[in-house]
Every structure is written in C-alpha cells, then in structure tokens.
Amino acid sequence: MSSKIINWLLLAGLSLALVYGLGAIGCPAYNFLGPMIAGVILSLAGRAPKVPGWSFPLAQSFIGALVARGFSHGFWAILAASWPYLVAGTIWALALGALMSLALLKLKMAHEKSAFWCLSPGGAAIMVILADQHGGDMAVVAFAQYFRVLLISLAAVMVSSLFIDSGSVQNVRVPFFPPIQWIDLALTAAALATGLLLAHLFPFVPGGQLLLPMILAGLSKNYLGHNIFLPPWLLYPCYALMGWRIGLSFTKESLKAVTRLIPGLFFGVMAMFLGCALYGAFMAKAANLDPLTAYLASCPGGLDAVTIIAASSGADLPFITAMQAMRLIVVISLGPWFYSLLSKRFC
C-alpha cells in the first residue's frame, strides 16, 4: 500500500475519532474542529496528504448556502423594523474586534496580515477563508477564531442557563440521510454552481467563492420559494475539507505563533464578550427586548451555538438570526477593505 493511501487512511480515521470524541463532550463546531486537529497532527508528524485545490471553493460555496438558509422574508422584515439597533450593534462588535486585534499587533503577538482577522466577529470558518485570500496565516487565524468561538460559546451557555428551564430544552437530531427533495436539491446546486462561476469570472469580489453562492442561494430561496437543501451527508464532508485544508497547512512556525497568541487572545475575547454584553443590555432597554434575546443577538461569535441556545430557550430566534447574519454580511463585504485600511494606518 502506497504512503499516500496510508496518509489518507490515517487522516480519515483520526478525523472520525476526534469528531466523535468532541461531539460527545458537546464541543461547538466539532465536525470542523475534529478534521482540523487531525490535519495539524499529521502535518506536524510529516504525514500530510495533499487535498485537491478544487475542493476548497466547493466547500466554501456550501458554507455560504448554509448561511443563506437564515434569509427568510421575516429576516428582511426584522432588518427593516430594527435596523438602527442592528447596524449600531454590528459596528460596535466590528470596532471591538478591530481594537483587540490592533492590541495583538502592537504587542507583536500576531503578524500584520493575520492580526486583524484573528478576532474579527464574523463566522469563524469564513474569517479563516478571507484571511487566507488576503495573505494571512490560515493556521494562526483558525486557532484564534475557534478559541474565540469556544470561549464565547461557553459564556453564552452559562449566561443563558440563568434564563433557560433545563427541562424544556430539547435536542433535535437531523438524520444523516433525510428524504431527498429533488427540486430543492437541483435549485440549490444551480445557485451554488452559478455563484462559483461568477466568482471565477469576477475574482476581485471579496470572498466571492462564499459570498456569491450565498447571495444567489438566498435570492433563490426567497423568490423561487424553495428550501435550501443541505443534508448532513453534503455538509459534513465540506466541514472536513475545510478543516483539513487549514490543519494540514499548520507548521512548526505556526505552532510558535499560536503559543504567543494565547494570553492576548484570552483577554481580547473577554473584552469583546463584556463589551457586546453591555450593548445587549442597552438594546434590551431601548428596543424593549427580553434580556436573553438581546444578549444572544449581540453575542460576538459562535453562530451555531447561539442558534441552538436560542431555539431551545424561547428567545426571539428571527431577531437573533437577523443581527448575527447582518454582522456576518458586513464583515464579509467590508472586512477586507476595513482591515486593509487599518493595516496601512497602524503597521
């Protein structure tokens, strides 16, 4: 058996073991983190297989469609009705993330091309993708982003436990092979394929391989009236591909950079958490929201965990999704320009 096949078998086996183990202890984003950690281990051991280059844009398009599933007509209605609070909260979170990232840069804990992506309050996987596209170190940014997600998710669980009746929480499991909705699957595939083609034709669009499929899938959902069909058997391989791409790029130099980052990351994430919690308290009073809804809507990260908590707690899920999605769209659209401006000003 060739060494390439052995390396792939090691990667797949270790990834499955880590996914199962992390999932068993309730770790957020375990389907992504497991393959990423497996990639890191094999890369440092010198047993890293090569992931095909075409697989990463494909995985990005599926992540974009996953975000677009939250874009319903109710989503746009909430944006129209509550946009001042959503815009202010988005700007506040972005400013906090930029300030904490600037501190990492000035303390020489992170390189200038990676620093401003490390604590950007968008989707963690998306920030890693954008960092890679703009010359950052994927491994360092991935560690920083998922460290942020882990801490914020744990804090969200602890704060939300004050409002949630534990007996009312129900875990809904989606079957790995749900019944196939062929029309929805075909329209979803068409939106993603068209988005990837446009990203190839217009490479200057920031994060185009994710943003354009996301926009087209959202438009298709709202105006053609279909559901975005993303069963686990499609999504889980995408999570694995993204995790492998990041983990396998990890080097000994990245490991040294990560070690330097940990103290600064911890204090930076805590500052973001407290700052966004203060904005949530303001929004609860000004917009007449219940405290849990306001807190989860302003929470700077862990979108998956926030959605799960909101769905099981009786909080206003559409409002929370609207604010979290708006922040994500703003960071994807304006992040490259904003962080480039900061780099030129402070580096």
Helix content: over 70%
Q: How many E strands?
A: 0
Radius of gyration: 20 Å
Report the total helices.
14
> For the report, how would you describe the main beta sheet?
none
The helix-strand sequence is HHHHHHHHHHHHHH
Shape: globular
The chain-level structural class is mainly alpha
Seen as an oligomer or otherwise, the chain set is: single chain
Overall average pLDDT: 80
Low-confidence stretches at least 5 residues in length (pLDDT < 50)? 166-172
Number of domains: 1
Walk me through the structure.
The chain has 347 residues and is an all-alpha fold. It has one domain. The chain contains 14 helices and no strands. Helix 5 runs parallel beside helix 7. The radius of gyration is 20 Å and the shape is globular.
Brief overview:
This protein has 347 residues and is an all-alpha fold.
Spell out the blueprint of helices and strands.
Blueprint: H1 3-24, H2 30-44, H3 55-68, H4 73-106, H5 112-118, H6 124-133, H7 138-160, H8 182-201, H9 208-223, H10 232-247, H11 252-286, H12 291-298, H13 303-313, H14 317-346
Helix pairs in contact: 1-2, 2-10, 3-8, 3-9, 3-10, 4-5, 4-11, 4-14, 5-6, 5-7, 6-7, 7-11, 7-13, 8-9, 11-12, 12-14, 13-14
